[in-house]
Design brief:
Structural class: alpha/beta
CATH class of one domain: Alpha Beta
Radius of gyration: 27 Å
Membrane topology: Single-pass type II membrane protein
EC number: 2.4.1.-
Number of strands: 15
Keywords: Glycosyltransferase, Golgi apparatus, Membrane, Signal, Transferase, Transmembrane
Distance between the termini: 89 Å
Order of helices and strands: HHHEEEEEEEEEEEHEHHEHEEHHHHH
CATH superfamily of one domain: Glycosyl transferase family 10, C-terminal domain
Family: Belongs to the glycosyltransferase 10 family.
Shape: globular
GO molecular function: alpha-(1->3)-fucosyltransferase activity
Strand content: 5-15%
CATH topology of one domain: Rossmann fold
CATH architecture of one domain: 3-Layer(aba) Sandwich
Strand order of the largest sheet: 2-3-1-4-8-9-10
Length: about 450
Amino acid sequence: MVPSKTLGYMAPMLSLAVLLFLSRFLEFPSISSPLPTAGLPDPRAAAAATTIPATPRRKEPFTDLVGAFDRWDKVVGCERFREKHRGWAPNASALQEAGTGDCRGLEVPHVSVLVKGWTWIPDNLDQMYSCRCGLSCLWTKSEVLGDKPDALLFENVRPPLQDSNSASCFHVIGTSKDGCMEVGSVGPDAASGNLRQKGGPLRVYMDLEASRKPSGFEDIFIGYHAKDDVQTTYAGALFHNSRNYHVSRQKRSDALVYWSSSRCLPDRDQLAKSFLSLVPHHSFGKCLNNVDGLDMALDFYPECSNGENSPPHWYDHLHCAMSHYKFVLAIENTVVESYVTEKLFYALDAGSVPIYFGAPNVWDFVPPNSIIDGSKFSSMEELAAYVKALAADPVAYAEYHAWRRCGVLGNYGKARATSLDTLPCRLCEYISRKGGKNLRTL
């Protein structure tokens, strides 16, 4: 019989031996943690919200993305990820509510929008839409199909200052003796006032550039900010048509970061150079090119060809090419609140992790733990060290994709719901609530 005192000494030693034995076969969770969420972390982790996460310890270079997912499933899993982000609370007011208004507020059952001036609005938006509340919406660039429009839409093309068939500006002042609706004007002819023929189409102006400036001669303004009449984000699929959507399962290990820019802005290029000089990368496009020429992506990745006979353009194979990289550097032209453009969303759609520099409230538009916010690091050296370590930790890296696999979206669902994809129905509903051509206030 073994004395009880001896057993007291042996029990901890036996436990340690068993633990060491099992460690040969079991993988324990990585201690790596996601990047802080720009002031919007899980409230239970608020104390760590202002610090950079610990650098991943396990150095295990990998190339198979699906294999990394399998490892993450065994070590972490969706249940733990959902619980970890259950308290995620981005700023709901950063995005308008789509499809929530009372149907009784609609005043006209059908709205027709004629697109008169545009630079990049895709042709495949043109169609008849069956919207919520029984509202039908015709969106067209054809003056034949849209011969009696309720609204004329101008995108980055200022509406005409005075037109007998279109609305002039913001607020109805009254009705003139000849039956025209007199509209207050903020333009050069404000003194005389513009006149819109009663029953004429409203004028809609759309500007999604960083400056976001109303023309001063529209009834409805479309911009990227929630304060605009109708908000439109860059998160939708229609910002990238006619492209090869092949997503590579294999991630490169020799070049970690993808960067492509052909609009060479000094400040942005300097920021990119200061980071890219510290990490292995491929830089396509005109700016900081290091792949021996332009349009080299198809030489690297022939599977990214869209198969058409026309000469390839850089945007034809954008998603496919960047999907071969673990990270995509995404730098906005301008740092402005809520100005989160396709540069970030392209990377998410391609199955890469964006390294982002831009809008200070970016977390209001993206899923939790989906991007690396470069502004939260004290130096480029610190950021580069984190990226390199993350690239060598399959479990930690896979967690940046968990939002997609586990359905944890944060505000990203709302960002998609207020994108260009849904603009026709949302604009038509807004016009209907204003009374159509009667231009009634909400």
